[in-house]
Please model this.
Amino acid sequence: MNRWESLIDQKIRQAIEQGEFDNLSGHGQPIDLSENPFEDPDWRTAHRLLRNAGFAPSWIEERKDIDNELAVARSELERAKLILTNAQGTPHATAAAARWQKAQAQFRNKVGDLNRRINAWNLKVPSPSFHRTRIDVERDIDRIKD
Model:
């Protein structure tokens, strides 16, 4: 026995070696994580009914909305960059460059709005572990430029 091994660890190791955990009910089955052990039991039924009906807390729905709007803004910026790339060496290059500049400005405005929503959203979530980081607009633009 390792001298650092606690009595509990020793007992569990011995039980495993003796095969006492081999035929437990539910062996090989996924663990049921559908119930939150920290949830107030008085609200458990109401929360289950809402979850089964497709509802989520408003702060979760708002996070999804922020992420969806960001995805749309990024795809619009990527499309403008693709148009700029494809227009190089054509008569449309000047118009494509102007479109790219306009798309960058619109993306910066949109990200500014989303960052304000993220700041407000971070105040609404029940725990700091759910906080969303602000969007780094220049990093996103640089990623699309490359």
In short: The CA atoms of residues 4 and 10 lie 10 Å apart. The chain has two domains: 7-52, 58-145. The helical segments are 7-17, 44-52, 58-87, 93-124, 137-145.
